[in-house]
Amino acid sequence: MNSYVVYVTAKDAAEAKTIAQTVVEERLAACANIFADIQSVYRWEGKLCEDAETALVLKTTEARKTALIDRVKELHSYVVPCIVCLPIADGNPAFLDWIAVETA
Questions:
Q1: 5 burial via Cβ count (<10 Å: 0-12, 13-18, 19+)
Q2: 5 CB-side CA count, 13 A
Q3: What is the fold, at CATH topology level, of the domain defined by 3-102?
Q4: 19, 20, 61, 71: least buried by Cβ within 10 Å?
C-alpha cells in the first residue's frame, strides 16, 4: 500500500492541534507532527505577506488521502489552506505497515 506525508500549515498551534487530533482520531492519518513558530513569506491577493504559522506533517495511505484532504479543508480557517501530499518512496517497512494499520 502506498503511503504519503501530507504537509499542512495552520494559523497557530491551537488550530494545528485540533486538526491533528481530529484526523488521527478519525483514522485519516496515523500520526501528526506539529512544528510551531514557523515563519511564512507568501503572496496573497497581490500583497507580500509575512506571518507566523504552525506546520503539521501527517502520515496517511493512498486510500485515505482524499478523505484526509477534504477533512483538513473542513477544519481549517484559511480560504485556501496549504495541503500537499508527498509520496513516500521508501522507508522502514514496519513503520509503513503501521501507517496502513492505523488508518484502516
A1: middle
A2: 11
A3: Alpha-Beta Plaits (3.30.70)
A4: 71
User: What span, in angstroms and rounded, lies between the C-alpha atoms of 14 and 17?
Assistant: 5
Q: How far, CA to CA in Å, does 38 sit from each of 2, 73, 79?
A: 29, 20, 20
- Domain ranges in the chain are 3-102
Place of cell 486510500: 63
User: Which grid coordinates belong to 52?
Assistant: 507566523
C-alpha cell recorded at residue 29:
492519518
Q: Please report the pLDDT score of residue 1 as a whole number.
A: 78
The C-alpha cell that represents 57 in the structure block: 506533517
